[in-house]
Amino acid sequence: MAEFVNPFSGMTPERKLTDRELARAIRMALAAEEEAVHMYEAMADASDNPLAAKVLQDIADEERVHAGEFQELLRILLPDEQRLLQKGTAEVKELAGDEKDRKE
Question: What's this model's pTM, rounded to 2 decimal places?
């Protein structure tokens, strides 16, 4: 499991965070959500109990919603976030197109 340092050690900081500092804390929270999705889906896949698998998948889906909320906050807090995410999307699409051309 990923291990991250707690930015507050159980205490509220003495001052308000800058947007950049808050963004770093949100990235840590986002990583925790993604880790939770992985764990709950692995548990659901490993269970032969249909109810347990259904509940665990539902919880995993809720964590994915949280991840989306954190992503949107990052887009709001960091002016270049959307541009960089779109650049990554374009790179994947370009590679996918290259891969498709090779298969044809």
Answer: 0.76
Instruction: For residue 40, give the amino acid letter.
Output: Y
In the chain, what is the straight-line distance between the N-terminal and C-terminal CA atoms, in Å?
40
pLDDT tens, position by position, 68-90: 999 999 999 999 999 999 999 99
Q: Tell me, what amino acid is at 69?
A: E
Domain span holding position 35: 19-79
| Concatenated DSSP letters of 27-48 | HHHHHHHHHHHHHHHHHHHH--
Distance of CA 49 to the CA centre of its chain: 28
Residue whose structure tokens are 């976030």: 81
Is residue 66 assigned to a domain? yes
Quick check: is 57 in a domain? yes
